[in-house]
Amino acid sequence: MPLLKNAVITLEMIKWEHSVFALPFALCGAMLAARGIPTLHQLLWIIVAMVAARSAAMAFNRLADASIDAANPRTRARALPRGTLTPDFVRNFVAVSSAVFVVAAWQLNRVAFFLAPVALAIIFLYSYTKRWTRWSHLVLGFALGIAPAAAWIAVRGSLDLRILLLTAAVTFWVAGFDVLYACQDHAFDQQAGLHSVPRYWGISKSLWIARFLHLFMLLLLAALILVFGLGLLSSLGLGAVFLLLTYEHSLVSKDDLSKLNSAFFTMNGVIAVIFFVFLALDLLLHHSSTI
């Protein structure tokens, strides 16, 4: 069936399994806002909003980068360059995903609804930043980093500045990983005139920049634990994130980027899930009445 075939190809195109990247941090924001477990209604629509926003962003990115992907040996087998999906189909998918996101925001509260176009603008903007700034990695990080703050707004209907510590932490985490991943396209970015940290500073220095970005993430998570008065379990979660990031960086070197593959993506998903699990247990067991 053509519809089923297109659905399978679309899920592959948007890498739907990588929705786990930002979703656990969004749930951290929701649980901090709710002082425990949000209502079932809130959880359902937060998850719908997260998946819809990420699906729209990924499909939009594939549209914006279709010609670039076709020229890049690493990406020319993607759906649009290969012709297995048409641009019109992907545009319709972006429109439908965006509409679902807006509906989910409306189901949460009026503030979330009114801010929904701002969130879409931020996540769509990223796709063009590599054309004019080497720091597109930070824009990508911020596009995912707004998830915890958005989840807080979804629960409370207002913003607490403390949750911006988690927004900043996710921003630096994703930016660090994206710098690592961009090392694969170091030569292509130079040839195509695209901007990235590896293009300007080379692979060796870029690996150090990624390490510093992840160090900032760890410091921000520590500050989050402090300002919210979280306890030992959250601190253990932070320790686990530190160990996983250390292992992640040990897998790559300037002479060997072969492990920057799907398993590398999976490890980052594990980092997000582990921190969420420890923070959630901390809130549920000790802190639900004190935040």
Structure summarized in a few sentences:
The protein is mostly helical and 291 residues long. 77% of the residues lie in helices and 0% in strands. The chain has a single domain (2-287), classed as Tetracycline Repressor, domain 2.
Number of helices: 13
Q: Name the poorly predicted regions.
A: none
Report how far apart the termini are: 52 Å
| Residue-averaged pLDDT | 90
The helix-strand sequence is HHHHHHHHHHHHH
Number of domains: 1
Helix content range of the residues, please? over 70%
Structural class: mainly alpha
Name given to the CATH architecture = Orthogonal Bundle
Radius of gyration over C-alpha positions, nearest whole angstrom = 19 Å
Task: Give the SSE layout.
Layout: H1 2-13, H2 23-34, H3 40-64, H4 66-71, H5 79-82, H6 87-108, H7 110-129, H8 136-156, H9 164-182, H10 186-192, H11 197-227, H12 232-250, H13 262-287
Task: Report on the architecture of this protein.
With 291 residues, this protein is mainly alpha-helical. It has a single domain (2-287), classed as Orthogonal Bundle (Tetracycline Repressor, domain 2), CATH 1.10.357. Helix content is 77%, strand content 0%. It contains 13 helices and no strands. It has helices at residues 2-13, 23-34, 40-64, 66-71, 79-82, 87-108, 110-129, 136-156, 164-182, 186-192, 197-227, 232-250, 262-287. The longest helix is centred in the last third of the chain and has 31 residues, at 197-227. The N and C termini lie far apart (52 Å).
